[in-house]
Amino acid sequence: MKLFFLNTILHFPNKIVRVLPIAIGCLMVSCLSAQTSPEFRGVWVATVDNIDWPTKGDYNSDSQKASFIKLLEMHQRNGINALVVQIRPCTDAFYPSPYEPWSQWLTGIQGRPPSPYYDPLAFMISETHKRGMVFHAWMNPYRAEFNLFNSSLSATHITKVHPEWFLVYGDKRYFDPGNKEAQQYVTQVVADVVSRYDVDAIHFDDYFYPYRIAGKEFPDELSFRKYGVGMTKDDWRRSNTDSIISKLSFTIKKENKKCQFGISPFGVWRNQDKDPIDGSRTIGAQTNYDDLYANILLWLKKGWIDYVAPQLYWEFGHRIAPYEVLLSWWSNHTYGKHCYIGMGVYRANSNPAWKEVNQLPRQIVAMRKTPNMKGMIFFSSKTFERNPNGWNDSLRFNYFKVPVKVPEMSWLK
Prior knowledge:
Layout: H1 3-11, H2 24-33, E1 40-45, H3 61-78, E2 82-88, H4 104-107, H5 120-130, E3 134-139, E4 143-145, H6 158-161, E5 166-169, E6 172-175, H7 180-196, E7 201-204, H8 221-227, H9 233-255, E8 260-263, H10 288-292, H11 296-302, E9 307-308, E10 311-312, H12 323-331, E11 338-343, H13 352-355, H14 359-368, E12 375-378, H15 391-399
């Protein structure tokens, strides 16, 4: 783990840094050799609420194109080889869709096309591939209205066409995951993208059933009474999520056998107090299985997904969910599929642990030393614009100095 001390010397030459004695020559060889094998080096580009792209209030197509190219070139300089771009943040589209309206975060008003007209998805795929990087199309499955109080909804939005498919929870509107017609609709939306665009993967994040709101039950009782005969509500909810993942897996491979399907779940599958055998040594965290009703391990075992990218946004030694504990846990639960660790660069300087220059480098080194790990994805793109803790330099001149390809998946050849 001494590699990160060398990194500090290399990339902060104007600072006086105390380091441990190390064999620099041997360490440099170790560092570079670790970079030569295929590795997924991705970045999430969030479009919801204009988090990463396009800039809020920038509705000019030429300006959007220029800013996306600038974003791409920054990541290319840093050694990134994959972009995971949110193209369907809230049952809307960053491409001309026969099912859903143009996104309000692209043009300011939902349903309004870009001006001058262009196809952002086709443009982003082309520019990404032109630079030798892969493009994963990130789609949110069930979120339909981001904020009930200030959303811009077009008359053709699916919540207007089929209001019976949706449920309100907190300040958002969601598809009812137990509604079979809604599941089929989401599947059609995904199939349309895979059939028309040269995406390397379809990527879903952690929002299936929404995160719990204290004191509020998700309002799906009517669907449960209709469809959940003979099951507990928890098992029925998990079966609904299993069902959509299974449908999507089949549909994606039917449209394009080489297109991957990946899920980026919350970092904790189950706590050990709920599952002494397969649970992780974490305490009190919400979990995929018990709170979000996402049985990730089943999907890996069944081969429904090609990769998993757990969001491990915690530091080493975190009191509830330590990075090192969860890194080891996911290493033992990949079931032959690829695992890319989601790393929280956005946490930079948020607490004493994330003020440490070596927090992220240590996480990369630990991940590379852990069996069954195939790479990482950083959340999110905009953080790199300010080069927090010099981490852009660490990637560019050290950890990602040698360009590599993303790992191949033998089962897709």
